[in-house]
Specification:
This protein is mostly helical and 184 residues long. The protein is 63% helix and 0% strand.
Length: 184
């Protein structure tokens, strides 16, 4: 049972309603997490605006979802692992690849470099080492892409932590976290 309940569009503050409409038209539903964030128009707008900004970045939706799955696992967020697996499939990432991403691995070396960098950010609480930056750059990531991966990581930590606090009821096909959750 969630510790903070989702709201319907009718119950949501007026400022949240247009955002809920946009989410529904994009995903075909309003996920429980976003319906809960809708209680605070500022909290929902934070999510919406961060994702809108990232959608204009250089990294593809599929790449972002692969990162999100890996971040969810290391953060121990089953809701986000489930949500981003479903959304990743919508963006053409195979189920096998998403399962691999859940363990912090990727078939594509550039996606692997992004996952490694994102997980270093999470595990080191932002205090990445010169070696982390060098490895990412050696794998072909530009400084602009590294900063975008930082933004993706922070955005996903926002939702991971929100789910921890809320104890959001999962409304996506359930994905079990990998045994390596919290450790690489």
């Amino acid at each position: 049972m969630p510790r903070i309940s989702p709201v319907s569009k009718d119950q949501a503050p007026d400022a949240s309603k247009p955002m809920l409409d946009a989410i529904h038209s994009k995903l075909g539903k309003v996920p429980n997490l976003l319906a809960t964030l809708a209680q605070s128009p500022a909290a929902l707008a934070t999510y919406v605006n961060l994702n809108d900004a990232l959608s204009k970045g250089s990294l593809s939706p599929a790449y972002r979802e692969s990162l999100a799955v890996a971040i969810a696992n290391v953060s121990g967020c089953g809701y986000c692992a489930s949500a981003h697996t479903a959304i990743g499939k919508m963006h053409g990432v195979s189920g096998d690849e998403l399962a691999k991403n859940l363990t912090g691995k990727a078939s594509d070396p550039k996606v692997q470099a992004g996952i490694d960098f994102a997980l270093a950010i999470v595990e080191k609480r932002g205090w990445v080492e010169d070696a982390d930056l060098k490895a990412a750059r050696d794998a072909g990531l530009s400084d602009a892409e590294l900063l975008e991966i930082l933004a993706i990581t922070i955005t996903n930590l926002f939702t991971n932590y929100a789910n921890h606090i809320i104890e959001t009821e999962n409304d996506f096909p359930k994905v079990e976290l990998a045994q390596t959750a919290g450790a690489r």
